[in-house]
Design goal:
Number of helices: 18
CATH topology of the largest domain: endopeptidase fold (from Nostoc punctiforme)
Largest sheet: 6 strands, antiparallel
Strand content: 5-15%
Number of domains: 5
Number of strands: 12
Order of helices and strands: EHHEEEHHHHHHHHHEHHEHHHHEEEEEHE
Shape: globular
Structural class: alpha+beta
CATH architecture of the largest domain: Alpha-Beta Complex
Helix content: 25-40%
Strand order of the largest sheet: 7-12-8-9-10-11
Radius of gyration: 25 Å
Distance between the termini: 52 Å
CATH superfamily of the largest domain: endopeptidase domain like (from Nostoc punctiforme)
């Protein structure tokens, strides 16, 4: 049993905390933003507990303000009621969340004292696993079961129902282990269990049909073997989609029906630009996206790194739009600005994306040269920053939140670092979603999980990237790796099981399972202790 006592007047803290949330705060349920009781459960603690929240962004302030602390006095505590429910602020919630994370019912995150909807859902999943009533309330019986040494780890078994089942079925369907869309029904039935067994057998796992942590990680890994049209096959279906990829600019040559490495790479490139999990397979979602009249054609873009980018840059150098030392193979802001200038000068749409028309004109020998005095791209850096700021404002406006004025460079927090216009835009976009609810597997625009949040924000900021889980972020293969001490505003931080956007001044914006929403908080010791890698998106 745990020792719990009562703190009087804590409802004032909760109300004050919720008042300063921004973005999607109106979407949080009433049970999370107020308390019907005048007393809230807390544990005995010898020191004061600091609850850190962030005020709204000011129009003329730094990109993000300093964190405002609210201090709680634990001096008047008594024994508390036995049930932990949504809305409770209680130091034992930290222990509960950590245990749920260890058992696989919550995504790994920095534990908090807040018992929100995400914590309640994790408790429900545990109760389902343990054969208890699924009310999401952590009473004495549920607490003891969770804390028991024999507590079951998360797994999907025959007869289970829930959104987590639906997510698993959807991925199994796209990998070809479930054959019909109607199999995605939210129930872990015989069909789903057999699909999991086949997945496990094909990929070297014990084929027990139990969907646990290792099977979940496999589903979204780069190593997963699919049961759909893939490398080495030869068919008319392959030929059909090769022709589509050729028409969209992802593949060169003629369609021959042979699924080789070139076809696989073309599919990956298509998936990364069309909101797909990048696995190189011709699964149902990918085929649907290829058949769509809204399929996005090939174009090199911000954040890419490849030999094709280097070839593009060398042509931009040839025509005077980029200095030779910038032809590094990385498509950064200067390259985007140089492409936009080339397009503008040559009568093309100046979007900074190197698509088929732009590349064809560069290779034609008939392109107009740059006549400005500078070829480094710096002459257009302000326009690039303005475009980034405009993108941030548009994203905030589309989200129903006030636009934020972003200078081309701005000091962030107390660290004194400066950020580019694109990094500033990314931070502003992320900040516009503070308060939006955390929902496992959600990719926006108004609810997110941690990787879905990073995915959505980067795409809104013009960095085209596919959806990846936190494990996928360990090695995305296209950004500059940085250490914890090198992190700066606009970088992506990856910790064990979690990912977020560095906001500068020693802070981060992330979709937090433990807080149950998108938050802006300090990068404390927890982040340093669990750090895996950082990625520099904007050089």
């Amino acid at each position: 049993m745990f020792n719990r006592k009562l703190l009087r007047g804590t409802s004032l803290l909760l109300a004050a905390s919720m008042l300063i949330m921004t973005g999607c705060e109106q979407q949080i349920s009433a049970t999370e933003s107020s308390e019907s009781e005048s007393e809230i459960i807390v544990t005995t603690a010898p020191e004061t507990e600091s609850v850190e929240m962030v005020a709204a962004l000011g129009i003329n302030s730094n990109i993000l303000p300093s964190i405002a602390g609210v201090t709680v006095d634990d001096s008047a505590e008594e024994l508390a009621p036995v049930n932990l429910t949504v809305g409770v602020i209680n130091s034992v919630v930290k222990d509960l969340q950590q245990r749920l994370m260890d058992l696989g019912y919550m995504d790994p995150d920095e534990p908090t004292t807040y018992y929100g909807d995400a914590t309640s859902l994790a408790v429900q999943y545990f109760q389902r696993q343990a054969g208890m009533g699924m009310d999401g309330i952590c009473g004495v019986g549920t607490w003891d079961a969770i804390m028991s040494e024999s507590a079951p780890h998360y797994a999907l078994k025959l007869g289970f129902q829930g959104n987590d089942v639906t997510h698993a079925q959807y991925r199994l369907y796209n990998l070809g282990y479930l054959y019909n869309g109607s199999d995605i029904n939210g129930t872990y039935d015989e069909t789903t269990m057999n699909a999991v067994k086949k997945l496990q057998e094909t990929n070297g796992l014990t084929p027990d049909g139990i969907y646990g942590t290792s099977t979940y990680n496999l589903l979204y890994s780069d190593e997963v073997k699919a049961n759909v049209v893939a490398l080495g096959e030869h068919s008319d279906l392959v030929k059909k989609y090769q022709q589509v990829l050729i028409n969209l600019g992802y593949l060169e040559g003629e369609a021959d029906g042979n699924f080789g490495l070139g076809t696989q790479n073309a599919i990956k490139a298509f998936q990364s630009r069309n909101d797909q999990v990048v696995d190189g397979y011709l699964g149902p979602d990918t085929r649907t996206a290829l058949d769509s009249p809204n399929a996005i054609p090939f174009a090199m873009r911000l954040g890419e790194q490849s030999d094709s980018v280097k070839d593009l840059q060398q042509y931009l150098v040839k025509y005077g739009y980029l200095s030779s030392d910038k032809a590094t193979g990385y498509f950064g802001e200067l390259t985007k600005s140089a492409v936009a200038n080339f397009q503008r000068r040559n009568g093309l749409t100046a979007d900074g994306l190197a698509g088929a028309k732009t590349i064809s004109l560069l290779h034609s020998g008939n392109a107009k040269k740059n006549t400005t005095t500078s070829s480094s791209g710096s002459s257009s850096s302000s326009s690039s920053a303005n475009a980034a700021a405009s993108a941030a404002a548009n994203a905030a406006a589309n989200a129903g939140t006030p636009a934020v004025s972003i200078p081309s460079t701005a000091a962030v927090g107390t660290g004194g670092e400066t950020v580019s216009g694109s990094a500033a835009a990314l931070i502003a976009i992320a900040a516009s979603k503070i308060g939006c609810p955390y929902v496992w597997g959600a990719k926006g625009p108004n609810s997110f999980d941690c990787s879905g949040f990073v995915y959505w924000c980067l795409n809104q900021a013009g960095v085209g990237i596919s959806y990846m889980t936190s494990s996928g972020w360990r090695n995305p293969g296209r950004f500059k790796r940085v250490s914890y001490n090198e992190l700066q505003a606009g970088d992506i931080i990856v910790v064990s099981g979690h990912v977020g956007i560095v906001a500068g001044g020693g802070t981060i914006i992330d979709a937090s399972s433990s807080n149950g929403r998108v938050v802006h908080r300090s990068l404390g010791s927890w982040w340093a202790n669990h750090f895996i890698v950082g990625w520099r998106i904007f050089s």
